[in-house]
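Exercise 7. Given the encoded structure of a 84-residue chain, write a plausible sequence.
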């Protein structure tokens, strides 16, 4: 019975710890308010994760993926998508 009670107390402690360390606004990690793509580009998709913002866009026949830093807005990487 004592082991069962200690197990419940441990689980309750973990839940309280997780709830107290959660941020109320998950978007607070991103200071970036806008990104720039070339004029005339069609944005296909955008996603924010792990401090990076990924934007895929099509410009004419060319498809590109750009990774932006979520804090500064600087371009981290540009990747061309090519057919095999």
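Solution.
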């Amino acid at each position: 019975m004592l082991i069962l009670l200690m197990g419940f107390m441990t689980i309750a402690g973990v839940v309280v710890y997780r709830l107290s360390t959660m941020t109320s606004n998950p978007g607070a990690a991103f200071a970036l308010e806008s990104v720039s793509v070339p004029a005339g580009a069609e944005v296909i998709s955008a996603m924010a994760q792990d401090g990076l913002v990924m934007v895929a866009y099509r410009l004419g026949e060319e498809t590109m993926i750009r990774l932006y830093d979520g804090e500064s807005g600087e371009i981290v990487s540009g990747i061309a998508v090519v057919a095999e």
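Remark. Residues 2-81 form one domain. Students should compare their own answers with the one above.
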